[in-house]
Design brief:
It is a single chain. This protein has one domain (7-121). It has helices at 18-31, 53-57, 72-79, 86-92, 95-121; strands spanning 7-11, 37-41, 61-64, 67-70. The protein is α+β, with helices and mostly antiparallel strands. Helix 3 (72-79) runs antiparallel to helix 4 (86-92).
Length: 124
């Protein structure tokens, strides 16, 4: 299945874990000349209309067509376009796995990463 819709991935480039992970994806996009995939660091960059920086920093987001995807859905949309991650995306996209992994990401991983990022940026 070839994705023809443009995808813009919004990520927290200031996060010490998220930034390097997305850098891997960016290199893959460049190496494989994958068109219609863009990355926007929202830790300091421009925001899409209607979204706050706090909302976008709290987890990965991706704009595909008319939809704004969040969390696991955003990863799946990106991974489907990356040769080395395509099969992982198909596996995770099974409804039962997507739901379970979505709960883990949305309620454990993303909040932990966001709190970690806030601690790093505060002078405590």
């Amino acid at each position: 299945m070839k994705n023809t819709k443009p995808l813009t991935v919004y990520f927290n480039g200031a996060c010490s874990l998220c930034g390097p992970e997305v850098a891997v994806y960016q290199r893959m996009v460049q190496e494989h000349a994958i068109e219609q995939v863009a990355f926007q660091d929202i830790s300091s960059g421009r925001l899409p209309k209607g979204y706050s920086r706090e909302t976008l920093l709290s987890s990965i987001h991706a704009h595909e067509g008319e939809a704004m995807l969040q969390g696991v859905e955003a990863f799946i949309a990106l991974w489907l376009r990356l040769p080395k991650f395509k099969y992982l995306a198909y596996l995770i996209n099974w409804p039962i796995l997507r739901s379970g992994i979505g709960l883990i990401y949305n309620h454990i991983i993303a909040p932990w990463l966001y709190k970690r990022y806030l601690r790093q940026t505060c002078d405590i």
